């Protein structure tokens, strides 16, 4: 199939890799510019906490070691409630932890991996403005697809058009 994925975030890039490995041709359409070669947001951004579910997905595409190379284990959280402070562990022991990774680094690792898979094309700077059936429209281009996937995050344009 020809697949168009809207959004090159974590979900869009992960799915692109997996679909392309199954033999589909995938165009990933992203409204932002290519973040590679930039240092990411100036302000400290909140890192992503990888659970076993996220780690399994990364393991499956061979990116887990790279993703965890600069991670910090998070064993639990502190909850402040009515003047009391309680510690809630994330797991039964020290092996059941979340791994904090820098969002920008994970995005870039996924983009590099997606780009290295034949049949994946990344289109940066293309904001999707509308859908007509399985045609995906940006300001200056129309993508035709057998399947369209909305991976454009919160306030999804794809979802709005489906409604
Ligand atoms: C402060 C904060 C902390 C979080 N911490 C965690 C955490 O620790 N662990 C966790 O699992 N989740 C966390 N989340 C949720 C996390 O952000 C999402 O799980 C994850 O980013 C979802 O990835 P995604 O690819 O679906 O969407 P996104 O990362 O939002 O990517 C969507 C992409 O679509 C693009 N896009 C949007 N509209 C268009 C359009 N019209 N045309 C083209 N492209 C478009 C965007 O530019 C973006 O690149 C956190 C969220 C926030 C806000």
Taken from the alpha-carbon principal axes, the silhouette is globular
- Helix % is 25-40%
Compute the number of strand runs.
12
- Low-pLDDT ranges: none
The description of the largest β-sheet is: 4 strands, parallel
Q: Can you identify the CATH superfamily of the largest domain?
A: FAD/NAD(P)-binding domain
Overall average pLDDT: 94
Rg result: 18 Å
**Please, how many domains?**
2
Strand content: 25-35%
How many DSSP H or I helices?
5
Ligands bound to this protein structure: flavin-adenine dinucleotide
Per CATH, which architecture of the largest domain?
Answer: 3-Layer(bba) Sandwich
Query: N-to-C terminal Cα separation, in Å?
Result: 24 Å
Task: Please state the structural category.
Answer: alpha/beta
CATH class of the largest domain: Alpha Beta
Strand order of the largest sheet: 8-2-1-12
Order of helices and strands: EHEEHHEEEEHEEEEEH
The CATH topology of the largest domain is: FAD/NAD(P)-binding domain
Walkthrough of the structure:
- It is globular, with a radius of gyration of 18 Å.
- The chain has 163 residues and is an alpha/beta fold.
- Strands 8-2-1-12 form a four-stranded parallel sheet.
- The mean pLDDT is 94.
- The protein contains five helices and twelve strands.
- It binds flavin-adenine dinucleotide.
């Amino acid at each position: 199939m020809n697949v168009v994925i809207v959004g090159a975030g974590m979900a869009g890039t992960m799915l692109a890799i997996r679909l392309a490995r199954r033999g589909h041709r995938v165009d990933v359409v992203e409204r932002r510019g290519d973040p590679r070669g930039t240092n990411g947001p100036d302000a400290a951004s909140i890192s992503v906490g990888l659970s076993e579910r996220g780690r399994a997905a990364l393991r499956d595409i061979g990116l887990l070691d790279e993703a965890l190379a600069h991670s910090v284990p998070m064993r639990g959280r502190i909850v402040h409630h009515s003047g009391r402070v309680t510690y809630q562990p994330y797991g039964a022991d020290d092996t059941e932890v979340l791994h904090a990774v820098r969002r920008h680094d994970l995005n870039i690792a996924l983009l590099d991996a997606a780009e290295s898979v034949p049949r994946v094309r990344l289109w940066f700077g293309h904001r999707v403005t509308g859908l007509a059936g399985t045609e995906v429209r940006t300001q200056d281009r129309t993508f035709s697809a057998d399947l369209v996937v909305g991976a454009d995050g919160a306030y999804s344009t794809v979802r709005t058009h489906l409604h």
